[in-house]
């Protein structure tokens, strides 16, 4: 019963209206906390929350920031923005004051939805530099200087859906930069629709499936899972967070048939003692991008659940995937219908199979990819030059067409499923009074992902207390972005024109003299 919409109707309001009007409107759609929504409920919730947003002064085209965990209000606000024609701006709940200030200022968000427990983070953000007018608190509101701060208001009488188009912006999702601050990816309505439809096809989803995710809704992966349920007739269950010890009991409780894992999560699950719960479930398939082949095979042996590999970034879509039934072999998969891929050199010239180069992607369908970076036309042109999206990932295409990931061309870092801007971490380190220079780069960890490492040069006459550097970072960076390894060096390796050669630092890896935060006393 996959829902396929004509081009002009590939918007979230049109999809919600289709759910409410079809013969399966009373079927369950969502389980999240205490909320239980049918397919018809989703449209009603969206229309009521859109009315409340409108009453708060939010107009079509304006931005609404969402900073909360996996709870019904997040999806209610997300759907309400879509219904109203506003754009949602999800904010990572681990963000600290400086990052929150930047995201609010850059997006121009007029309203912020935030959990009560996260309100203290705003104390270290200069809200006068933002366009923020109103804060809705999930819990008890507290005074915030210069901003109208109130408790989450009740929904209002439903309003009609705005006449949005498939290319209109549904959300701005921030992704880490390497040589500058995070970029806001402009995600149109049709991209979200295609995320759901492509994923549902690749996973073979149907009305009897129960999709269960423990991933955060402020990322595209979990948001996409909700879209998959909408277009396929499946039900989606959203857990509050990932727990290695509680994962299989949660899957059993929900009757999950499809699960969603990221690379580091599988080694964490395998590190748990083997138990009967690993086999006492209905899970038939998992989506596990970035899972090493050996870990994928071990996971299959213990749980009976095969994991599909795949590739899709915030800017693109589910463009590359393996096939169900294939043994894990360490490839991302094959280009999917509706997409095209090239492996190219630095001049965008296609390379033959077996040669490593940058992965470029294109889509057949209009607005299946993001439309650019918010307020960054130069970065948009750079990334989409020659009418191909430049992923920044180095890959190899094998003789059978499969694409294998090699590494990142730039020094973006991915840890615990989060993209980390090396530039943003460097700015925090450089704010420490004893740090003269800093270079942040990824090194490999035992969990088959990146760890964050920084090489530091001390200011003349200053003694670098690394424990104090870590304390400095704790109040300014999300926990996952704090460097695990710190290495004090006399100088950073540079080119003749003074550019730091981070590839030399990456190749050197964790040096014997580097301090490890996880081993500090």
Please specify the SSE layout and strand pairing.
Blueprint: H1 12-21, E1 28-32, E2 35-38, H2 39-55, E3 63-67, H3 72-84, E4 87-90, H4 97-107, E5 111-115, E6 134-138, E7 148-151, E8 169-175, E9 183-188, H5 189-203, E10 210-213, H6 220-232, E11 235-238, H7 247-254, E12 258-260, H8 265-270, E13 285-287, H9 293-303, E14 307-308, E15 310-311, E16 320-321, E17 334-335, E18 339-344, E19 356-363, H10 377-383, E20 389-397, E21 403-408, E22 413-415, E23 418-420, H11 422-430, E24 435-444, E25 450-458, H12 466-474, E26 485-488, H13 502-508, E27 515-516
Parallel strand pairs: 1-11, 3-4, 3-5, 5-6, 6-7, 10-11, 10-12, 12-13, 13-14, 25-26
Antiparallel strand pairs: 1-2, 8-9, 15-16, 16-17, 18-19, 19-20, 20-21, 22-23, 24-25, 26-27
Summarize the structure.
By secondary structure, this protein is α/β, with parallel strands linked by helices. It has helices at residues 12-21, 39-55, 72-84, 97-107, 189-203, 220-232, 247-254, 265-270, 293-303, 377-383, 422-430, 466-474, 502-508; strands at 28-32, 35-38, 63-67, 87-90, 111-115, 134-138, 148-151, 169-175, 183-188, 210-213, 235-238, 258-260, 285-287, 307-308, 310-311, 320-321, 334-335, 339-344, 356-363, 389-397, 403-408, 413-415, 418-420, 435-444, 450-458, 485-488, 515-516.
**Portion in strands:** 15-25%
How many helical stretches? 13
Give the strand line-up of the largest sheet.
2-1-11-10-12-13-14
Q: Pairing-aware structural class of the strands and helices?
A: alpha/beta
CATH architecture of the largest domain: 3-Layer(aba) Sandwich
Backbone shape: globular
- Helical content stands at 25-40%
Number of strands: 27
How many angstroms separate the termini?
Answer: 57 Å
CATH topology of the largest domain: Rossmann fold
Average pLDDT, to the nearest integer? 93
What is the CATH first-level class name of the largest domain? Alpha Beta
